[in-house]
Amino acid sequence: MTGWTEYTLALVAFTASHFVPRIGDLRGRLIGRVGRRAYFSVYGLLSLALLVWVIVAAGRAPFVEVWPQAPWMRWAPNLLMPLATVLIVNGIGIAQPFTLGGNRLAVFDPADPGFAAISRHPLFLALALWSLAHLVPNGDLAHVILFGLFAALALAAIPIFDARAQAHFGPDTAPAFWRETGLFSLAPLANRSWRKRNGERLAKRTAIGIILWAALLLGHTAVIGVSPLP
Description:
The protein is an all-alpha fold. It is globular. The longest helix has 40 residues, at 141-180. It is 67% helix and 0% strand.
């Protein structure tokens, strides 16, 4: 396959993997047949494999410059990626079922929103940050399409999941959900009661997020083939 052919196929396969399961409730029928855990385990591995394929295919696509890379542009991923990894680690299993990575069995408690008080969509924000941070220094056409698409999908998913939350809670209880959660806010950190309930968990997960960022930074050259340092 030529570079553009492989890249197009990879993009189509990755995008289709996120939309096809929703057609005709295919996902629901598969979950009913094999179980939720088995479905999401296989789906997660498939999504990861397709993501790796897309990234590799983008690197093999012909180079078409959209904008040149200036030295300052490399600061974008170096400054934003620590926040992205912290959001990822804190967002996994969040007690807010209406978001990516949220605990689907959790019952949201407005009196104790947990990390959702800082962000009710931490994984979507992390994906958007990762995409936009890498879009800045990668001005070739293949990577502009790649990171632009990922950012658009992440940001477009937020109102879709918010609409599901609104429909679930209804007009009586939804106001408390919106009041006690935020798209992104550091205000809960100044709340003594919130810190008492969530401070230890936040500190541990934030430390893991920083370690994850450091590992990605150190392994970037070996895995991707390009140094991320300015």
